Amino acid sequence: MSEKKEFNQIKNAIALKAIGEIILTTILSIIVLIILGDGILNDGIAESIASVNQGFYRFLVTNKTIVMIILFAIIFTINTFLVIRHTMNHMVEILKATDKILKRPEEEIKLSGNLISIENQLNKIRIDLITSQNKAKESEAKKNDLIMYMAHDLKTPLTSVIGYLSLLTEEKEISKPLQEKYLHLVLKKALRVEELTNQFFDITRYNLSDMPINRKTIDLSMLLDQLVDECYPMLTERNLTCLIQKPNQVMYLGDGDKLARAFENLLKNAIHYSFEQTEIKIEVIQNEKDIKIIFQNQGEKIPSFKLDKIFEKFYRADESRTSHTGGAGLGLAITKQIIELHQGTITVQNEDEWIIFTVQLPISDLSIAK
Predict the structure, then answer these.
(1) Does the structure show a pLDDT above 60 at 136?
(2) Architecture of the domain whose range is 216-362
(3) How many whole angstroms separate alpha carbon 55 and alpha carbon 279?
(4) Which of 15, 288, 298, 364 could in theory staple to 278 by disulfide, Cβ–Cβ 3.0 to 4.6 A?
């Protein structure tokens, strides 16, 4: 909004300057014309015209008012033409600079001295364009890498599924315990394929900013209890426990499905990156102005430069890829968008080996149910 206002001010300044130049040059020209026509040089001019053509001289004297008006109109037209041409030269200069931004954004824009404000704005646009292009290239590169990695990850469990099913089909005398073992492994690999497929869908439908929030009264305490219960097998597999400290009931007016997904992403992130045989802590604090949901887990310390990027799409703080933890790098980015759709904030910090994510949901008449 401020940029639009600034451009309007620049546009109005150029227009006012052009009008001022037209008025000023016209007034000066008229003054000179009056002096020459009726002032100091009157006698000399009259004698010169009369000596050349007596009839023309009488015509000028008889129709003096009309002649002066015609001369004023001619002067005004000439001055207007010159000022407009000068202004158009500036416009052409600006258009060339704009074209240069699109074709060679790395080159700095230089305009005439009286266009310094527009020069500054164009250079700002140029820098923003370079930044956007770099981010787009970086995002595209990350996305391509992830698709390549995930295609490999899809192939690995699919190969296992095909192998075990082939054994079950071809071998007629497999013992019952071995059959159950193979079926369990097939199911596990198939679930992994489903998880990776869902991550592919997340990549294609990442942008949630235009999705509506379907607000309903939800109990955040109950939502978190259900979430921990659903993740119990994952916790058990890594010998983790989860402790929830919360009020018995925390009523909130929000989109339960989206918030459940956001909290699930945070809990799964904590599970994947926790040291084995440690405890994950979830704490809910309800104040007069906000509700805080804090997720804490013990894991390897995340460097500060990685903390700054942890909510970017396709970014993974742990760059090693395994079939167990390999994700699309969208979980935390989607979580941040969901929280922001609720006008909330999410932050992350390291305290020794504790990784702490803090979600803050503001309380207002529209966001909390009494």
Answers:
(1) yes
(2) 2-Layer Sandwich (3.30)
(3) 113
(4) 298
